[in-house]
């Protein structure tokens, strides 16, 4: 696999946005950050519209001086560019029913996550450009880093090049929201979705399970709840380790630890072959993520949730997870926090 191309400000021509009506569907975490960045880059306020249902996000957009449109048909008709920045699970319903039928044949549609595009859950006309500009940052950081004159990591791709001008326009939009300042990495909806869902369904579940079982074993060996919670995460040591991994290197950060710790971690991890984990990970990636099995199951859950009186399955998952010894012990420790600190 060749190295990914990285695009910078110099690769982008902002003049491609001259006179274009740019609509943001959603003014939440990403929408508010990206719309404000775009305006601060110099795109006139008159060219920017926030399409939003009547809620506190719409009030916030208005308070920040944006033109807010509640009628989605009108917003769809004027959009030369549409950023879809509402939660992924509601995008197909809102976009396909309210925007798709009214949009210009050559409009540019921008997503910040590959999920709905990769799984073909959104409808597009053949001449439309569909691009992904996906910040790898929470919305508040997309805004604060821009304000500090710094960039943020971002993935960019052209998923449908209807006009033949998809890449230059994607780059102009990326520069507008501040995404090419630190370098936007060429990616794809497939790559972004695979990595995101894999992390959520394979990597982090294993990490949660490891912490849960480590807790059980050490507790059985006589360690106290208080000592375990602080040792394992409440001291914020794991957060610090990952911060150092980002700054110094995944392995190089180990040099900040004691010699005994370095020896234990390096020899221990090399002893674990990981063969069965690799097979388990491949199974999740190919037979659950990339083949659309999870996507189908999740869409059914979403449909069920629309039924009256339906209970969100997340409630049950939280209930069972809170029953684990780790969670119960943490609850007890947190109740004593004032005593401890
Ligand atoms: P959010 O949860 O902050 O979205 C809130 C906005 O969606 C509000 O404007 C609200 O009025 C609107 N909204 C919610 N439900 C709606 C409905 N049923 N109909 C119409 N409007 C509705 O969304 P967020 O987190 O900014 O995500 C937007 C996109 O950005 C998603 O595709 C997400 O994957 C992507 N993304 C999010 C990141 C994050 O850190 N939150 C990071 C990178 C990408």
What does this structure look like?
- This protein has 341 residues and is α/β, with parallel strands linked by helices.
- The protein folds into two domains: 6-187, 3-Layer(aba) Sandwich (Rossmann fold); 192-340, no CATH class.
- It has helices at residues 29-41, 56-63, 72-78, 91-99, 115-118, 139-147, 166-176, 189-220, 225-234, 237-248, 259-271, 275-290, 293-305, 313-322, 325-335, 337-340; strands at 6-7, 22-25, 48-51, 67-69, 81-84, 108-111, 129-135, 154-161, 184-186.
- A nine-stranded mixed beta sheet has the order 1-9-8-7-6-5-2-3-4, with helices on both faces.
- α7 links the parallel β8 (154-161) and β9.
- The longest helix has 32 residues, at 189-220.
- 1,4-dihydronicotinamide adenine dinucleotide is lined by residues 26-31, 52-53, 55, 57, 85-88, 90, 94, 112-113, 134-135, 138-139.
Structural class: alpha/beta
Q: What's the CATH topology label of the largest domain?
A: Rossmann fold
Query: Can you write the helix and strand succession as a string?
Result: EEHEHEHEHEHEHEHEHHHHHHHHH
Backbone shape? globular
Task: Give the DSSP E fraction (strand runs of 2 or more residues).
Answer: 5-15%
Residue share in helix: 40-55%
- Distance, first to last CA: 51 Å
Spans of at least 5 consecutive residues whose pLDDT stays below 50 are none
CATH top level class name of the largest domain: Alpha Beta
Q: Mean of the pLDDT scores?
A: 96
- What ligands are attached or bound here? 1,4-dihydronicotinamide adenine dinucleotide
Tell me the number of structural domains. Answer: 2
CATH architecture of the largest domain: 3-Layer(aba) Sandwich
**Tally of DSSP β-strands:** 9
What can be said about the biggest beta sheet? 9 strands, mixed
Radius of gyration, in Å, reads 23 Å
């Amino acid at each position: 696999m060749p190295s990914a191309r990285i695009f910078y400000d110099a690769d982008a021509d902002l003049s491609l946005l001259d006179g274009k009506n740019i609509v943001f569907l959603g003014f939440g975490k990403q929408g508010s950050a990206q719309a404000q960045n775009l305006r601060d880059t110099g795109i006139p306020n008159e060219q920017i519209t926030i399409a939003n249902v009547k809620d506190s996000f719409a009030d916030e957009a208005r308070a920040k001086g944006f033109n807010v449109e509640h009628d989605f048909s009108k917003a769809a008709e004027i959009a030369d560019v549409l950023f879809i920045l509402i939660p992924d699970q509601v995008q197909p319903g809102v976009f396909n029913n309210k925007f798709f039928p009214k949009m210009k044949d050559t409009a540019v549609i921008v997503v910040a996550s590959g999920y709905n595009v990769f799984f073909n859950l959104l409808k597009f006309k053949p001449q439309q450009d569909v691009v992904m500009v996906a910040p790898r940052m929470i919305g508040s950081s997309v805004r604060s880093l821009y304000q500090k004159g710094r960039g943020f990591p971002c993935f960019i791709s052209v998923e449908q090049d209807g006009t033949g001008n998809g890449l230059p326009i994607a780059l102009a939009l990326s520069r507008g929201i501040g995404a090419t300042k630190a370098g936007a990495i060429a990616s794809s909806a497939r790559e972004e979705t695979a990595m995101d869902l894999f992390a959520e369904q394979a990597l982090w579940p294993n990490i949660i399970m490891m912490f849960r079982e480590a807790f059980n074993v050490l507790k059985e060996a006589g360690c106290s709840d208080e000592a375990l919670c602080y040792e394992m995460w409440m001291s914020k040591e794991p957060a610090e380790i990952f911060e150092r991994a980002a700054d110094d290197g995944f392995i190089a950060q180990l040099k900040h630890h004691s010699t005994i710790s370095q020896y234990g971690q390096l020899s221990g991890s090399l002893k674990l072959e990981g063969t069965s984990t690799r097979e388990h990970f491949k199974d999740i990636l190919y037979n659950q993520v990339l083949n659309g099995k999870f996507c189908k199951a999740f869409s059914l859950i979403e449909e069920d949730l629309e039924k009256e009186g339906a209970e969100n399955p997340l409630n049950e998952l939280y209930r069972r997870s809170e029953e684990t010894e780790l969670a119960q012990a943490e609850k007890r420790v947190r109740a004593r926090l004032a005593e401890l600190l």
